[in-house]
Amino acid sequence: MLLLLLLTVACLLRSSAQNQSVSGKITDESGKPLAGATVTIKGTNLSATTGDNGVFQINTGNSIKPVFTISFVGYESFDYTYKGNNNFTIALHQDTRTLGDVIVIGYGVQRKRDVTGATSTVKADQIVQRPVVRVEEALQGTVSGVTVQSVNGMPGQGLAVRIRGTASINNNNDPLYVIDGQIGGDISTISPNDIESMEVLKDASATAIYGSRGSTGVVIITTKLGREGKTHIDINPWIKKEMIAKELPIMNAYQFAQATNAQYATTGQPAAFSAAQIEGFKTNPGTNWQKAVQDKPWVQNYQVSVSGGSNDVRYMVSYLHVDQPGLIINQWYRSDIARANLMVKASDRLSLQFNLTGALPRNRNTQYQGDETDPFAQAYAWDPTSPIRDANGNFILESQYAALSLNPIAQETNGLNDNSSTNLAGTGILTYRIIKGLTFTSNNTYANSSSINRQFYGPGTATYFSNPSNGYALQNSSAGHSFQNSNYFTYKGSWGDHDLTVTALYEQSSGTSYNNQSKGTNLSTYGLGYWNLGLGLSQNVSSGYSSSALQSYMGRVEYKFKDRYLLNATIRDDGSSVLTQKYSTFPSAALGWIVSKEDFLANSRVVSFLKLRGSYGVTGNQTVGAYSSIPQINVGSNGSGYAIENATGYPFNGNLSPVTLYTNLETPRSQSLKWERDKQTDIGIDAVFLNGAITFTGDYYYRKVTDLLYNLTAPYYLGGQNYQVNLGSLYNKGFEFNVGATPVSTHNFKWTTTGIISFNSNKLLSLNGLDNVITNNIGSAQTGVSILKVGMPLGEFYGYKFLGTWKSSEASQAAQYGNKPGDSRYLDVLGTHSINATDDRIPIGNGAPKYTFSWANDLSLGNWSLTMLFYGSHGSQIFSGTLPYTYGGLGDARNATNVGILNVWTANHQTDVPTFSSTSQNYINSSRWVFNGSYIKAKNVALSYKFPQRWIGPHVKNLELYVSGQNLFTITKYPGYDPEVTNMSNGITQGLETGVIPNPRSYTFGLRAGF
After folding, report:
1. Bridge partners of 930?
2. What's 205's DSSP letter?
3. Using one digit for the tens of pLDDT, what is the confidence trace for 146-173?
4. Segment 558-600, tens digit of pLDDT
5. Is 983 helix (H, G, I), strand (E, B) or coil?
6. What's the pTM?
7. Given CA atoms 626, 631, 635, 636 in this order, what sign does their dihedral have?
8. Among 510, 178, 235, CA closest to 355
9. Contact indicator for 386, 404 with CB cutoff of 8 Å
């Protein structure tokens, strides 16, 4: 009986031991908690995941002395034998020997250590450190070889992203974005906080898997899925105060009146202002139009997400609301984005993933890309002696001094250009394991979008949009849908020293868009705004339709021998409906050698990892409009799409048109429109030293683009229209380096730093017999400011070489040109004693930087963290169309507003600021307005505090408060608003700037919390 009792007690004690609950904490080497680490009891299916505080809790089941296996991506796995102590802490070490991160490479994944192409990764924790509204902002300063330029400060605007230079003359140079497998996805529909990772594919071996659309580089975006465990709620609200950081030195009313009188005296005109008026301006500084048109808004951003799941089902649902008023009055951007991601493991063989997203962006008056007619541009050119309103409170629409254009406050207050859109996309991914090592994946995306643009400009506010006495109202609705179907088989096998992965793909995609526009001019009443176009005395209607499709085949082989010799080969065949020569083949191959696996480095204490790689490949570009390769009949003048009143009608389809229309019966077209081809060679090195204390990546690349797609203008006798042709070639070559280090890493303090520098040079090699093609313009006023010249880089400025002013001692020499001392002096290229557009215009600068660089630092001390990002660009020039108008005497700028005019040339003060003179020429297209565009910016500085778990209690998993500043300061010699902004729309227009709203300086306050 006693023996039975003892056995019973022992069993109870054993049962208790077997089913005990154990908790612990997982950290990195510096003691920072690792969220999402997996803890598995060896030999069982029991597992748990750490929370944001690094803590896990697990039931030991039937194990008497359980062994816990702890694993986390990028860290060495660790086995821990449980010793009966609860609440233990385990520090994992970074896996610098294997670089174990798994990255997305397109139609599959690969260990980072095995990647042979030039690929960079931006992770979620890097993105969350910066309060970004747009996805592109997260790439700035974080990836070598990638230039990200915030081209203007309007709310909700996209950024210009260039990967390894400019690949096309006047077609799109932005990279291809792939969102969860959707090729060409709309990044404006993504919340940056929903991104798990972004992989940037830079060389042709990496991008060739996307063939026809990979020549400008590829950014693969993977959105988040929930982790196994309890439901997790994350919130990330922040508010941001924005302001224009710098203003132009504009004269007050007193200075303006004196300068204007001096100008009129020089040119023989009567004084503009009386002595009494000037005396009155001493106490009345007049209107500061720059400040009057500005706003200092608060930007609001609210993000919430709910995620979680089990071993079989994982989910993530998120919602984002952004409210971003503009830096000028009556301008704003708002957006609501919702996302739902679901992963279902239906069986051991079948898994399904569903991603749904919806975005509702709206904006007002954000169409200003930069032009002298824009309200922001008019603000620095308007007369400071003129008030905004008269004594009755009505706008004073015009002034007899300075700018000819409309009162900018009236224009921006009364003018409406409203846009609203609905963008929906759904992706379904099916993955089926057919047999061991062989899987089939089908990725299908359907996207639907619709938008409407409404414009309203009343009488007197539409000077540059229609007859100023009439005004107009307009509504333009557009919609479209696209479908993509990607099907591919993947085989993975290993035997002995050999590892092989083979991928075979068939893919098709199509897209359709259509639009309708209605416009009413000279409305009988303007009280209804743009809501009743039928009130217009004259009306016109237009509509359009477009459709295109792609079909592709791709095969890829990834081979590894002895875990150190790597091969990656791809071939893709693409067919496009928009080209004459529909199909083209794009091959690539890359080799890699993990040198650190060799015996002579295997036990090195210095070199932890070393890989050499090289690649060559061909990619393509076909970004031309649908129907570019077939004859078209365009309705309206020069293909504008509008009917022209009282024009001659043409018969169509055997009958006269029922309305009077102007048509070109056949537009010019290319007879053999084909793919633009980009051939690229890359040599790279990846290295890790001192067990992760120092990392290094370096690349050299050479890319040659042939069969350039160029927008050629036909002679007027053929209609004078633009059409696409293949002509010429260019190259980009450069070096890019990324160096990272952890100078200090202790239990309580850690400092990591990363430096990136990217060099790129560009040259136009051929234009098929053409040369010195003068092209492009800035806004509506300046023309012929760029040139395409064989042997020169893209972005070349074209104009007169400004040599200052003629001095008194040079009077006789000036007279040979019809000038006198004080007049502008320009280079006489041929020595003809005359300055003319034919002989004396030359290249005078270039808008492409020689190199860009960034320096990032992350410091943590206890619960405090400080991050800093500095970004810079060097070697570019800026062709300013802003500053010429502030000096007067150009276009619609009759009088100067810039205080620089107070330094004007006089006989006693002989400067290089030309005097006002009937014999002086003040050319806009001159080197006088070309400036050094180099700069360094403090892009982001953030200080955060993470509250200790004991302070926030068990129901709050994490709580962090932070404050940050963006564009805190800029070091530059450029005298304009912002050296980063530009009117750039293609490779030719780099560095051109007129009236562009600058990027804001901002201060952000926010929190991150998890429940």
Report:
1. 879
2. H
3. 888 888 999 988 888 999 888 888 777 8
4. 999 998 999 999 999 988 888 877 888 999 999 999 999 888 8
5. coil
6. 0.84
7. positive
8. 178
9. no
